[in-house]
Amino acid sequence: MPIFKFFLDIYIDKFGPFRTAYHAIGGIYLQIGNMKQIHRQKLKNHFLLGFILFAAISDEVLQPLINDIQDLKRGYELKIGNQTVWVTGGLGVITSDLPEGNEQAGVKNHNAHHGCRNCMIHHSELDNISFDIKRHGRYHHKTTLQFSTIRSVQIQAQRDALATQYGIREKPPIFDNVMRDRHIQCPHDAFHCMGGLAKEMLQSTFGILSSTGETEFLKIWRNFEFPPYWSRQQNPITHLGSYFFSDYLRLSMIMPFIINRSLYITMLNKSFIEYVIEACTITKSQVMDKLLGLWVYFSQMVSLTFYKEFSDVDYNNLQQSIILWSKLVAKVIENLILIV
């Protein structure tokens, strides 16, 4: 009897359906991970399972989905045409943005003292690129023991203290009811991560421009040779909040060229120039090189992140690109240090 196995990719995302008031609704979507990439990219192969409404409890809404995954894991016979096949499968991965991913991994919010769902780094050390992630990482068996320890404590104040110490929620997530590794199968979404960083990089860069710098930047931007298949973008300085993630990333790809063509040292704020000179121990004439170099590293990092296939060389290049950008961004853009 043929056996069909399904790799389930559950995508959960909260969004605001109203324009002037924010009442989050959670969308639950399914994609079959066994499909080839060209098929996974088609909208018709993204299946809407339901919504988590304003006042609804997420666990109650997700419980029927958990039951279905458990049934699929046990397997059953299915007749397709004149052939009987055995269908089975299970939860492969949960895809989500940073807040939702932490919730489904059982970790506290990302702005907590220990808000990373991959390791135990403290929030104040997020710019420490020498942090030993393997040694201080979060592992499924260790987190399971921590949940058990919290559950065994009778006093609420002590449970809260332990949860803060471990950086986890008081109760494990509902997806623990299906076989999975809560940390490996809840990875950080590269698109949300890079898109969020691109937005912060753009905002910080526009914030250091003088009025003359803004005018010259927009002049070059309007006349730039955009690819014909790109959607038309609004003014990035005044309407950056209206951009999609794809718009942030596209603008990031051309930022090194625009900066190289449009900006001079006289077009930057005096406070920024003084900060970079002190932080990098350089002369005033080298400030523009640092800013341009920062955007070159970031563009390279984004480009490497979204390769369709990775070789060992590509992985090493991406690692080096991340290290180079992380070291430079902490020196050049002060307000980005806490989100590296």
What secondary-structure arrangement, pairings included, does this model have?
Blueprint: E1 3-15, E2 25-32, H1 37-40, E3 47-52, H2 58-74, E4 76-80, E5 83-96, H3 98-105, H4 140-152, H5 156-166, H6 190-207, H7 211-222, H8 245-262, H9 270-280, H10 287-305, H11 312-332
Parallel strand pairs: 1-5
Antiparallel strand pairs: 1-2, 2-3, 4-5
Helix pairs in contact: 4-5, 6-8, 7-8, 8-10, 10-11
Compute the number of helices. Answer: 11
Q: What is the spatial order of strands in the main beta sheet?
A: 3-2-1-5-4
What letter string, H or E per element, gives the SSE order? EEHEHEEHHHHHHHHH
Could you describe the largest sheet, including whether it forms a barrel? 5 strands, mixed
Mean pLDDT: 90
The number of distinct structural domains comes to 3
End-to-end Cα distance, whole Å, is 51 Å
What does it look like?
- Helices cover 45% and strands 14% of the residues.
- It is α+β, with helices and mostly antiparallel strands and 340 residues long.
- It has helices spanning 37-40, 58-74, 98-105, 140-152, 156-166, 190-207, 211-222, 245-262, 270-280, 287-305, 312-332, and strands at 3-15, 25-32, 47-52, 76-80, 83-96.
- It is globular, with a radius of gyration of 23 Å.
- Helix 7 (211-222) crosses helix 8 (245-262) and helix 10 packs antiparallel against helix 11.
- The longest helix has 21 residues, at 312-332.
- It has three domains: 1-104, no CATH class; 107-172, no CATH class; 190-339, no CATH class.
- The chain has a five-stranded mixed β-sheet.
- Strand 4 and strand 5 (83-96) form a beta hairpin.
